[in-house]
Amino acid sequence: MGVVQFFVVHVIVQSAWAEPYSWAGNNISDLGNVHCALQPEPEPRYVCSPEHGLMNTSFVVLGALLVVGVVLTGRAVWRRGPAAVAARLLLAGAGVGFVLAGLAPADADENMHVLGALLIMATGNIGLLLAGLGLAASPASRWATALLGFAAATALGLFLSHHYLGLGMGGMERVAAFPLLAWALAVGVSGLTGRRSEAAAPDSMEDEPSRRSQKDAPGGFNQRTS
């Protein structure tokens, strides 16, 4: 829910810009900036986001739901052990980062906003790497999770060093930030479909052991029919 609402709001807020918003040339945080002004760093661009309040609310909702999701997921998602515990703490830290980013827009409280961004893209991506060890999932899923974390952490390094590889500032930032959201969405969908599959399991399968015991019991079905 948190990831879906974030992307829906992202599209709504960017469409409200008079000057077209660019996924390559603009930061994600530009959508939440309170004031209309020329932003010189890390690349010069004019920022004016009329629906900044909606975007900042979306950041907070996303972060809060991410924390709740990490807390509530248990043995169905995570193994026991230090890797799983560390992964969950770091991923929850990324959720806190989204909340900070929403409460402290970049042009209102830059230091707090930068802290939130680092929690999202540094703490969150390290959490993804560790989740590759801590997930109670197939080896393929664990490898995919670890690779997402590695790719996102590498993109963060490129973004901070201003090496955008033709993707633009905003494009490289998204490569660093969006793998976490893609993973969270995949885990959420997997959890929902898994629960529905369990709920839809036929009762006959659950009753089969008791039926067998009745057949084999003294005076049971087999003896009565004989």
UniProtKB/TrEMBL annotation:
TM regions (residue ranges): 59-78, 85-106, 112-136, 143-164, 176-194
Membrane found in the keyword field: yes
Annotated segments matching region Disordered: 197-226
Keyword presence, Glycosyltransferase: no
Superkingdom of this protein's organism: Bacteria
Pfam short name (any one): DUF998
Protein name per Swiss-Prot or TrEMBL: DUF998 domain-containing protein
Record keywords: Membrane, Transmembrane, Transmembrane helix
